Amino acid sequence: MLRFFRKMRQNLISQGRTGKFMKYAVGEIILITLGVMIAVQINNWNQKRVIENEAIVTLNNLADNLQEEVFYNGLENAAERVLLTDSLLNNQLTVSDFRRDQRLSDLLSNYFRSEVMEENIETILIQESIVPKKYRSLITWIKNHKLYMDNYTRIRNGISEQVRRNEIIMEDNFPWYSLDDSLSNEHKYQFYLKNPYFRNRLMNLQKVNKRLISIYSISISQKADIAGEIKLLNENFGLDELIIFFNEMRLTRAEMIDCSAGDEGVYPFLLSHLFYNNTMDTLTYTPKQSSGGSVKILPKQLGFITRTDEEYIQFFSDNGCINFKVELNDYIIIE
After folding, report:
1. Beta-sheet pairing, 330-334 with 270-277
2. C-beta neighbour count of 193 within 10 angstroms
3. Cross-strand pairs, 275
4. Distant-in-sequence, close-in-space partners of 42: CB < 8 Å, separation ≥ 6
5. At a CB cut-off of 8 Å and minimum separation 6, what does 287 contact?
6. E strand map for the chain
7. Alpha-carbon distance 249 to 247, whole Å?
């Protein structure tokens, strides 16, 4: 091909056809320029595809990490400690309860998990501008989750400092506090049940713990929601696969019951639950203690809702009511 063009140039010059030669020269320059531009564009496309693939790999790794964090969430243990503390502060416990349950002697401790922000979250936020379009809505959710976790870490660190001060005060003023014999333990039990100083300290800590457990519960649902959305975007997920995905995180499917069931308060703090609307109806959910009004849930929507002191969660559509009895780590499938 090069030999052909070279011969054409030589013929035009030898024949003195300068005008045609100039037209040919300009055409050749244009062709070369176009070829270079096309090559550069193809290279840019390839580089963009490589960068986008790296972002997708990071998102998939993030989904796996978040799924593992939900699996080991520790929410049940924290909730039980908060409920035990309420029982003590409401004078519902006796010395016998302390002898049976060693956790009651450790209520002034920090029993929430120390969360480590995933490196993949930071990476995705740095790569925000090159994340493929179909994942862009996830960026807002990831940012919100990071804010929740930053707030969680700040409050938990404050609790740790409060616990440390409590430990110093107890050890300095009560010699039996650090001992673990039967006589010292009996001193502790009486102290925990009756001492106003201890109860005041515990009451202040309980207020912060209830706030922290609400933030923690929402963050767990956020993790599961983000991981689920990534799976739905990347894989051919149907309802069966989604249920398997939820179960792999040790979440339990909530039981659907009759709408006439009454509501009984269970947890004195905010809790969050993952849901998937597997119907073609637009639903509404109104929390019992809500200042923000009803929440609209679209067909085939994956998300989470929060509740306070409710045993049952009801959704409403034009076809009527759908009611679920919810436990601590339940998820909801609306059918």
Report:
1. parallel
2. 17
3. 303, 332
4. none
5. 295, 305, 306, 307, 308, 310
6. 252-253, 255-257, 270-277, 283-285, 295-297, 302-308, 312-317, 320-325, 330-334
7. 5
- DSSP for 27-47 reads HHHHHHHHHHHHHHHHHHHHH
Concatenated DSSP letters of 267-298: -SSEEEEEEEE-SSS-EEE--TT-SS--EEE-
pLDDT per position as a tens digit, 120-174: 788 888 877 777 788 888 888 888 888 888 888 888 888 888 888 888 888 888 8
Q: Which residue has the tokens 């998102």?
A: 59
Are the beta carbons of 236 and 68 closer than 8 angstroms?
A: no
Residue 300 CA to residue 275 CA, distance in Å, equals: 10
Residue 14's identity, in one-letter code, is S
Model pLDDT, residue 21: 47
Q: Is the dihedral of CA 233, 235, 237, 240 positive or negative?
A: negative
Q: Is the model's pTM score more than 0.70?
A: yes
As beta bridge partners, residue 314 has 323
pLDDT at 333 over 90: yes
> What pLDDT does residue 134 have?
80
Sign of CA dihedral 85, 86, 90, 95: negative
Nearest C-alpha neighbor of 321 from the set 329, 330, 313: 313
Backbone angles phi, psi at 277, to 5 degrees: -90, 100
- Over residues 62-100, the pLDDT tens digits come to 888 888 888 777 788 888 888 888 988 999 988 898 888
Query: Beta-carbon neighbour count of residue 251 at 10 Å?
Result: 22
**Distance between CA 275 and CA 254 in Å, rounded?**
10
How far is 243 from 97, CA to CA, in rounded Å? Answer: 39
Q: What 3-state class would DSSP assign to 208? A: helix
User: Are the C-beta atoms of 162 and 207 separated by less than 8 Å?
Assistant: no
Both tokens of 170, joined, read 């107890």
Q: How far apart are CA 60 and CA 136, in angstroms?
A: 14
